[in-house]
Design a protein that fits this description.
single chain; two-stranded antiparallel ribbon; 7 helices; 2 strands
Length: 167
């Protein structure tokens, strides 16, 4: 994904990010702009920050399955689903998902519990989300909401930041 999108994101948005955060934000001492600690081999100055990524997907949304709005990607309104499992609610739905998929629970566990959300991490999903969202200006948060507005409505998402509620 770095070769597919990352280089272009940095080339296009780094100067704007420098203006917003300042040059020191991208220093090695500041984890090259990553807001939570990551291993040295996983973060470099030439990698996009969350701010740059948010600018990229709101300026010219790429229909990539990893960040495309769900309502565009899987036709929620046209298919009769038996269940919709949100990644944010895996703790609640994990056992149901394992039985429904009829696969070895240990095999599924390898995919459900990844990097930032592992037990070794000192941050919860909610804390990570809050940290990264608070790093964005209000107008960019509003643009992200506009991009994912139908996901919020169809999947009952709610989010509040700086006294503004998105739902």
């Amino acid at each position: 994904y770095y070769n597919l999108y990352g280089k272009e994101i940095v080339q296009t948005y780094r100067e704007e990010a420098r203006k917003f955060y300042g040059d020191n934000f991208f220093s090695k001492e500041n984890n090259f702009g990553a807001l939570i600690e990551v291993p040295d081999d996983r973060r470099r100055v030439d990698m996009p920050t969350f701010y740059e990524f948010a600018l990229f997907i709101t300026d010219r949304p790429v229909k990539d399955e990893h960040w495309a709005p769900v309502f565009e990607y899987c036709s929620l309104c046209m298919v009769k689903y038996e269940a919709i499992v949100k990644f944010e609610e895996l703790d609640r739905d994990e056992e149901l998902l394992k039985r429904f998929l009829r696969i070895d629970p240990d095999e599924l566990n390898k995919y459900l519990h990844i990097n930032a959300y592992s037990e070794e991490n000192k941050y919860s999903r909610e804390e990570i989300t809050q940290l990264y969202m608070e790093s964005l200006p209000n107008d960019l948060i509003a643009k992200l909401y506009d991009l994912y507005r139908w996901d919020f409505k169809l999947l009952n998402y709610e989010y509040e930041i700086r006294g503004k509620k998105y739902s």
